[in-house]
Structure formats: C-alpha cells, structure tokens
C-alpha cells in the first residue's frame, strides 16, 4: 500500500473545475437530481459512478450494483488521472506484462471469464482506474461498515478532495470486529488519516477495512454547495477487473482463486518495488489540452 498527497496547486486545479459549481449541485438537490443517480442515503451520502474512458456497451453498465452514468464529466479530474497513468506508464506496463505472462500458462477453462479478461485487455488502456466513484457526504460524523472489497478494488486508488477521513486497515486478524462506534482500537488496526489532497493506492480486496468520517472539519477544507450546505468529497478509482465479482462487501476473494492470487501477487510486487509518482500541475495541463482538443 502506498500513501501520498497531491500538491496544493494540483488540488486547487481539480477543485477549480467548473463542474463543481455548475453541475455538482444537481446531485445534492433532489428536485434537480440527474436522471439515474442514486438517492441520498439515510446518512446523507451521495455516490455516483462514471468511467474514465468510453464505456463498453453492456460490460460497464454497473459497479457494485450502482448504475454507471457514462464518462466522467469532470474534465480536470480526467486530466489528472490521465497524467497519473502517463507518469507511471512504465510501472503499469511491466505489471501488465507480468500478469499476462503468468496467466498465459493456465488453460482457458482454468482462467474462466475473469482470467481471460487480463489476456485481452491492457492495464493502462482498459482496466486500471476504469471506474470513478464520486462520494459526497454531509459533515456529520459517520463510521462505515467494516468490509472486504470485491474484485474491482484489486488495485484501488482513493483521493480526498474536501474533508477529512480515517482509513482503518486490519492487516493481521480479519476476524476481529469493532468494539465501539468510535472506531477500531488502534492497537488492533492500522489507522491512516486522509486529508484534502491525500492519495492512497492499494489492493483493498486483501485487508479487512473501514472508513470513518470526522465530524469537525475546518470549514476551509469543505466543499461549499450553492445551497449553503458543506460537504466532504472523495474520489474512489476502481478497476474493471473480476467483472463477475465486483461486490463492495464480500468475505471471499474473487474467482478463479488462482487468477486472483496471481494478479494479487503481481500488484503486491509492483507496490512494494516501485514508487508510483503523482503528476504535477504541468502534467495535468498537458492532458487537459489533449482532452479539449
């Protein structure tokens, strides 16, 4: 697992996209909500899912049961993601090559549909950070249910834009559960604090984990909607891998087990032996120019 933080000018660049003032309010104001967007849940959380590139008909229609609303309309977020892929292209390509070399030794029957997917789709172009989940939450303190992620999070990247969160990871004993609403005991779990600009990259299928949202944020750290309300905003980037096992809360790894183990081992090696870099503002501007051309 890797942690980092985008530079202040890069965060300001993403948060300065006109989408946040012109389109985002429609997700938060029920009478003006976009068609197909999920309802606000009882804890005042809105989550919508987009794709980073053009979606494939049928194959990318849903993620964890939520409808995919097409290509992400936040141009500067798309530019940042494209820049991230570009500055880490060598690592992603090597990871892809190692996966394919190992999986190619298996029979088509043993690979199954989930395994064959890796042989016909490239990491950078097709499945890495394919889905973009936009989460907007009220400022109320909340503690999400602890869980294992499904196959879409085999290489998962989280970016906090507004507000503060705590990511709890149980790396030793997944049988242990919470003992209080305040969150897991720190001697049993690894606790990481996510602030505006924080980024993490990990295989979230592996650790039992959960997220806590702090209730007392600095007002300057929050997204201010035209309605006058403030929100926390986080972006979750997920893969399009293991399309038949993408569930968010699951207790068993995706199938086939051997495919999952091979892919996990290659990702573990990539995260352990390489340092993924975060793009600069200039990297983002170059990608935005290409997107708008």
Give your account of this protein's structure.
- The protein is of the alpha+beta class and 293 residues long.
- The chain has a single domain, classed as Jelly Rolls (Sandwich), CATH 2.60.120.10.
- Helix content is 31%, strand content 24%.
- The protein contains nine helices and 13 strands.
- The strands form two sheets. Strands 1, 2, 3, 4, 5, 7, 10, 12 and 13 form a nine-stranded mixed β-sheet that branches. A four-stranded antiparallel β-sheet has the order 6-11-8-9, with no helix packed on it.
- Helix 4 packs across helix 9 (281-292) and helix 5 packs antiparallel against helix 8.
- The longest helix has 17 residues, at 257-273.
- The model is unreliable at 31-40 and 177-181 (pLDDT under 50).
What is the global morphology? Answer: globular
Topology as a string of helices (H) and strands (E)? EHHHEEEHHHHEEEEEEEEEHH
What summary fits the major beta sheet? 9 strands, mixed
Distance between the termini: 36 Å
Q: How much of the polypeptide forms β-strand, as a percent range?
A: 15-25%
CATH topology: Jelly Rolls
Number of strands: 13
What's the architecture in CATH terms?
Sandwich
Structural class, by secondary structure, is alpha+beta
Indicate the radius of gyration in whole angstroms: 19 Å
Count of discrete alpha- or pi-helical segments spanning 4 or more residues: 9
The CATH homology group name? Jelly Rolls
Q: Which percent bin holds the helix content?
A: 25-40%
User: Which residues sit in consecutive blocks of at least 5 with pLDDT less than 50?
Assistant: 31-40, 177-181
Number of domains: 1
């Amino acid at each position: 697992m890797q942690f980092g933080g985008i530079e202040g000018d890069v965060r300001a660049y993403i948060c300065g996209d006109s989408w946040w003032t012109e389109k985002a309010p429609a997700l938060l104001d029920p009478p003006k909500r976009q068609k197909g967007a999920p309802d606000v849940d009882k804890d005042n959380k809105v989550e919508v899912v987009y794709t980073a590139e053009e979606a494939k008909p049928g194959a990318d229609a849903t993620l964890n049961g939520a409808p995919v609303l097409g290509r992400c309309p936040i141009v500067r977020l798309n530019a940042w993601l494209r820049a991230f892929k570009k500055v880490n292209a060598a690592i992603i390509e090597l990871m892809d090559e190692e996966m394919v070399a190992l999986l190619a030794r298996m029979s088509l029957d043993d690979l199954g549909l989930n395994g064959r997917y890796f042989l016909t789709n490239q990491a950078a172009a097709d499945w890495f950070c394919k889905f973009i989940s936009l989460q907007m939450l009220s400022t109320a303190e909340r503690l999400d249910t602890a869980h294992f992620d499904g196959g879409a999070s085999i290489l998962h990247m989280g970016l906090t834009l507004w507000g503060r969160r705590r990511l709890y990871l149980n790396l030793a004993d997944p049988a242990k559960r919470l003992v209080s609403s305040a969150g897991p005991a720190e001697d049993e779990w690894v606790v990481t604090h996510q602030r505006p600009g924080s980024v993490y990259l990990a295989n979230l299928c592996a650790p039992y984990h959960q997220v806590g949202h702090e209730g007392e944020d600095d007002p300057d750290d929050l997204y201010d909607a035209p309605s006058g309300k403030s929100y926390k905003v986080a972006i979750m980037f997920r893969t399009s891998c293991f399309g038949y096992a993408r569930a968010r809360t699951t207790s068993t790894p995706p199938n086939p087990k051997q495919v999952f183990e091979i892919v996990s081992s290659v990702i573990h090696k990539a995260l352990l032996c390489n340092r993924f870099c975060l793009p600069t503002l200039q990297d983002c501007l170059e990608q935005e120019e290409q997107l708008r051309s």
